[in-house]
Amino acid sequence: MITCIATDMDGTLLNENQEVSEANKTAILEAERQGIEVIVATGRSYEEAYYVLKEAGLSCDIICANGAEVRNKQGEMIDQAGIDTEKAKEIAAALNEIGIYFEIYTDQGTYTENVEMGIELIVNIFTTANPNVSEKQIRQSARERFEKGHIKLVEDYAEVIEDPSKLVYKFLVFSFDEDQLAQANEKLRDISGIAISSSGKENLEVNSIDAQKGVALQKLLNDKNLLAEHTMAVGDNLNDLSMMKVAGRPVAMGNALDEVKSFCSFKTATNQEDGVAKAILEALQQTV
Question: Structural domains in the chain?
Fold first, then answer.
């Protein structure tokens, strides 16, 4: 019996056009009609996630920035788990020492010091989720991220980290250099109180240890008096594993990483084949 469905966005709920397909939308609405709670859990900021869901005509609770922020259907903040200023400085110093590119997600938006590198980062994430889509199409989507104001340019990250009015949610780290990325990963693991995951083959995502999809999902389930064993979690990448470990029905997308597939008891089709819709309909049939 399924009473809650949690789904990732990129590479999962969204197709190659970064949209919610009609089949996925219909399946979600049917699940909600049957009284099942649907939650979107993403590494995206609230603004980036909300925009796509609004375009699709969907309204869900959203776990944002890997669990650093949780918003209800009305867009109201119901939970936060940020990185304190001193810890953020330590992370930034470690990354700057290596000379690797990163962005900072906060409760007031996402920031970069280099727009072109920011575009490359999003191209990487989109390409990982949609390997069959042309780079030209993906690059256009990435550029739109900046043009629509979802990311802001600053001269120095210090002005973001040291601003008392801002709460740092996440560091999104990127490099085409495998050795440099491994070096960053190793250096970050020396810092206590953080969680390191990934949403693409050439990036790392750094959050507070309390800001993980699984932690946020468990809190939401508790608040809603729902059982984890009756929850289905669908995803494709490493930052989805924490919520899959919470859910009684973990489902790997057909395009998921092998590590994700090996963990999950259930499999579905790819994000280009309406995998989320198929997973939901299968779960609904078993529930009936």
Answer: 4-81+212-287 (3.40.50.1000), 85-208 (3.30.1240.10)
In this structure, are residues 8 and 234 in contact, taking their beta carbons and an 8 Å threshold? Answer: yes
Q: Which residue is it, tokens 């709460």?
A: 167
Catalytic residue among 8, 10, 61, 107: 8
- pLDDT tens-digit readout, 106-157: 999 999 998 888 788 778 777 777 777 777 777 877 777 666 667 888 999 9
Which residues is 152 bridged to in the sheet? 111
- Please say if 274 is a catalytic residue: no
Q: What is the pTM of this model?
A: 0.88
Over pLDDT 90: what percentage of the chain?
80
CA distance 83 to 91: 10
Distance in angstroms (rounded) separating the CA atoms of residues 177 and 17: 27
